[in-house]
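Box 3.1 A note on notation
Throughout this textbook, protein chains are presented in two layers. The first layer is the amino acid sequence; the second is a token string describing backbone geometry. Keep the layers aligned when reading.
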Amino acid sequence: MIVGAISDSTHSLGFALQTTGPTCLLLAGLICLIGIKTVAGDIERAHKRINQSSREAHSK
């Protein structure tokens, strides 16, 4: 949608892709970094729960 609007106004698809491509990639990278931090915490909590459940099962 944005690429189309820029392309229509400048009459250059190449320019539209060159201007929006890097911006979209930067935003995607930032979103991935946020996701990685969130997932790391979730995995750590899951491991703690698994270890706790394992210890409880072995103590019975």
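The chain has a mean pLDDT of 91. The CA atoms of residues 14 and 48 lie 51 Å apart.
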